[in-house]
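Give me the fold.
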Amino acid sequence: MVLKERGHFDTLHEQKAGKFILVNPANSVYPEGIGKSSEKPWLVEQMQSGKSREQIDAEISGKSIVELHGMIETFGRKTNKITNTLNRNRLGMLETSVEYTKDNGFNARMNEIQQHVDTIFKKMNVGLTGKPTISWRADHAASVCRMGNQEADSVVDPNLRIHGVDNLYVCSNATMPSIGAINPTLTLTALSLRLGDHLSRSALGE
């Protein structure tokens, strides 16, 4: 049922408005009244603690708490930027500061998504235990070296070459004009293979 509902999220309308995905993290299911105590899945935690099958069955029967996390695509804006800070992370590398603003239609889009979630909850006959919250995170920074045909509104051309420079290419999330709701690695891999083919052809004079 949930998968059928989720299929609706991938329509052209949903894509234009900003794709989103609902996920259920492994550590977010636990019996009501017990609460999440660690980053481990509750069942794994119980098994590793040495509890018997009977003890776990007794605790897991009844109502459970399930967390749903939603991830949404935010479109690139020229005012968004990434800069280095003076702080260093545990690897000794300079940390980055991500500055971005909401799209004009962001609040309306969030209301649409909440309606989808409400529909799912009604079909599952479940309800909220707390008020939904928004976490402003930038897990997959992108679009600061946008790909495009015109130098006026992009940094690299469709072959990832920086406009006006003969032999300088950028291959990263930075070249994506916008980014999906989650995990851009597969898209970046495809761009890398495509760039490799382009450079090989260029080297051969094709």
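Confidence is low (pLDDT under 50) at residues 1-7.
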